[in-house]
Amino acid sequence: MRLKFLDADDEREAAFLAAAALGPTALLVDDGGDGQGRFASLLADGVERPAAEVADFVERSLHYHDAPLDLVRRVLDRRQRQPDPTRLLTTGLKATLKFARLPKANRARLMLIGPPAAGKTTLMGKLVARGGAPTAHILSTDWDRPGGIAQLTDSMSVLGIETERLDLATNGVPPISAEQGPLLIDTAGVDADNRSDFVALGHLAQALGVEPVLVLPAQIDADEAVNFTKAALAIGTKTLLVTRLDMARRLTGLLAAAHAGLAIAGGSVTPNFAYGFKALSPTSLASYLLELALRRRPSDPSA
Length: 303
Ligand SMILES: Nc1nc2c(ncn2[C@@H]2O[C@H](COP(=O)(O)OP(=O)(O)OP(=O)(O)O)[C@@H](O)[C@H]2O)c(=O)[nH]1
Ligand SMILES: [Mg+2]
Description:
By secondary structure, the chain is α/β, with parallel strands linked by helices.
């Protein structure tokens, strides 16, 4: 038996870390052709499985997440070379999707954009709380909607940070240089079909010298995710953050958005304001995808 110690602030974070670090704990074996599959032999360290069995498990897992077919095909192209599911999926994801790292906390100049209730404001707190960085400048465009900025100011004031209003309608934006510390901007939710809102955010990001980052909730469906991705790419967004990873049973939207061109940087795994941001690498994402597929419930139509 192997023991691994993980450092987490709550159970949601611990559950995510365990799934992302350990990967699938069982192997799906032949089900006698009834299409249901069943779990049997535990994956023992160092035990190699036939390539076809490994590929079958990875393929079923990707279909469980409704992964784009092109992604499934390209992952499975590597089937002969990888002895276990996590490695096959990791190398496949690495070759097929883009991954990125957020800039270090003390150098971050980011603007979070995305659909209403994506988790942008909650993520602001997680980013501010990263790694003992100098106090960030916090701006928000979400101040004319009842309660919009209040959620941010209340939480930021607990961290001793003042939130400034940013008016999207005016052309003048406060110049905040890199020497003045990190700069994080929260924005009001946008509709992917309303491209002028996206364009306005793009201009603002350029004027302030910040990188727009698309925030999507993990439960978003593939079509919506691709719509948002296209609108975000059109204003120069390169990076994707995914929230509510602790609540999603399938990562359909994440895979669709990444397949459409955004680089996966990480996600959020708790509703807590001050912690629970996790970077996602090909390995941790592969482990998490396989683990979720294994956890599927018998009531799932595709189980
Ligand atoms: N379980 C869980 N809940 C989350 C996570 N991130 C955000 N939430 C919850 O999702 C809801 C929406 O979060 P907000 O941060 O207000 O989302 P927003 O994008 O700022 O929303 P608008 O400003 O209204 O567009 C809140 O109830 C959060 O507590 C997460 O990672 N896990
Ligand atoms: Mg908000």
